[in-house]
Design goal:
22% helix; three-stranded antiparallel sheet; alpha+beta; single chain; nine-stranded mixed sheet
């Protein structure tokens, strides 16, 4: 007999389950060959369940391996992590032998859409502005950079990494109900690793509401 798991009362989970998460992208024209699921404890982020996939196509245009998606948590109903990763054309892309089929605008729209669904109480124009501002800040550094935003019980992380002499730029957006690394927090909101020149920035969502537009 199959019994659907039920979230325990008062437990804190993201407002979405595995099916809803991947249905989001399929409703937008993405198609998956398969969604891989695993029920095994992951000591890295303390979850028992993981589901991940790479869309094969976008409106019948092959985009295999361009976008990577995953969720994790207690089971497929009780998720506390969501993750999306993709590459955009970098400044030296013309010299690259790589082939990216999905337009950059569409990939950025995935970031907006993910925050819009996971945070229905966050005004769409405000969450979009945070992503746009974060990307602009990271582009200025042109280095591996992580920006963490603490909002309610979740931590949102966006990062940018130049790959192979800026032929492509890798972006990651993740939402987690775990705390960010200990070296960035409200008291130490900025950290730079002097050896590797990796930047970390910590932000609080309430302060963003009051920031000038």
């Amino acid at each position: 007999m199959h019994i659907d798991p039920i979230a325990i009362k008062n437990e804190k989970y993201l407002p979405i389950n595995k099916k809803d998460f991947f249905d989001l992208f399929e409703a937008r024209g993405y198609r998956f060959n398969q969604i891989n699921e695993g029920q095994k404890y992951n000591p890295f982020h303390g979850t028992n369940y993981t589901a991940f996939s790479t869309p094969y196509s976008f409106y019948d245009k092959v985009i295999e391996k361009e976008v990577h998606l995953s969720v994790a948590g207690e089971d497929n109903q009780c998720l506390n992590r969501a993750h999306i990763q993709f590459a955009l054309e970098g400044p030296n892309y013309e010299q690259s032998d790589k082939s990216l089929n999905l337009p950059s605008e569409e990939k950025l729209n995935l970031l907006y859409m993910m925050l819009e669904v996971l945070f229905p109480d966050w005004p769409k124009e405000e969450s979009k502005k945070w992503i746009d501002d974060s990307i602009a800040t990271m582009n200025e550094k042109n280095s591996l950079m992580f920006i963490y935003l603490h909002k309610d019980r979740e931590y949102i992380m966006i990062s940018r990494q130049p790959v192979q002499k800026d032929e492509v730029v890798q972006y990651v957006l993740s939402v987690s109900q775990q705390k960010p690394p200990g070296f960035v927090n409200p008291y130490y909101p900025y950290y730079e690793d002097e050896r590797s020149h990796v930047f970390h920035v910590y932000q609080e969502w309430k302060s963003l509401q009051n920031s000038p537009k």
